[in-house]
Write a structure and sequence with these properties.
Layout (H helix, E strand, L loop, with lengths): L6 H21 L13 H11 L4 E5 L11 H9 L3 E5 L7 H26 L6 H17 L1 H8 L4 H25 L4
Antiparallel strand pairs: 1-2
């Protein structure tokens, strides 16, 4: 099957996911539970600003290697807390058009990977449920599974991961349905 025959479902599914995610994150309230304000935000912001960190991912207390974790002073820092992973963004308001463009690009990429796997496992005219199952499973892997790693290694609350996986399941269902409806005939 020529891959060009799958570009239409790739783009359509990316648009469907982009619109669905916009509705979920603007109209529904459950994504608002993912991020909480600090109780003393101004004091924390002032303390971070004094260090003037460049954009990046930071961990405190920081250990350059595993040997430092056995240092009694480091152990005490961990016990005393806080233990935190902090993402610093560039100064200024988020540039939503750039972030939305990156999200759309990611949606295209996930749909492209689903189409790639489907192209090598399915044939024109295959059963719609099979098409939906293959492309939806690949889409679920793309949209949902990385959140598990974020809970394991970056301290993301498991409740956030669960909500993100619900989103991923919705996006996977919509991706699979789009491919099912637009799958090339025999």
């Amino acid at each position: 099957m020529p891959f060009l025959s799958l570009w239409f479902p790739v783009i359509v599914s990316a648009v469907v996911i982009f619109v669905a995610s916009s509705i979920i994150h603007m109209a529904l309230t459950y994504p608002k539970a993912d991020i909480k304000p600090l109780p003393n935000e101004e004091a924390v912001r002032d303390a971070i600003a004094k260090g003037n960190p460049s954009p990046g991912l930071y961990f405190t207390p920081h250990c350059a290697d595993h040997k430092q974790m056995n240092d009694p002073a480091k152990k005490q820092m961990f016990e005393k807390g806080p233990v935190a992973m902090l993402t610093i963004f560039a100064k200024g308001a988020p540039v939503m058009p750039r972030l939305l463009a990156q999200w759309f690009g990611f949606c295209v990429f996930v749909s492209f990977v689903a189409a790639y796997v489907a192209r090598h496992t399915l044939h024109p005219g295959d059963d719609g449920m099979l098409v939906m199952r293959i492309t939806g499973t690949v889409a679920f892997a793309g949209y949902a599974l990385s959140n598990i790693s974020d809970s394991i290694w970056k301290g993301q609350p498991w409740s956030n991961t669960f909500r993100a996986m619900i989103d991923g399941a919705i996006y996977a269902l919509l991706t699979g349905l789009t491919f099912r409806l637009l799958w090339p005939a025999a």
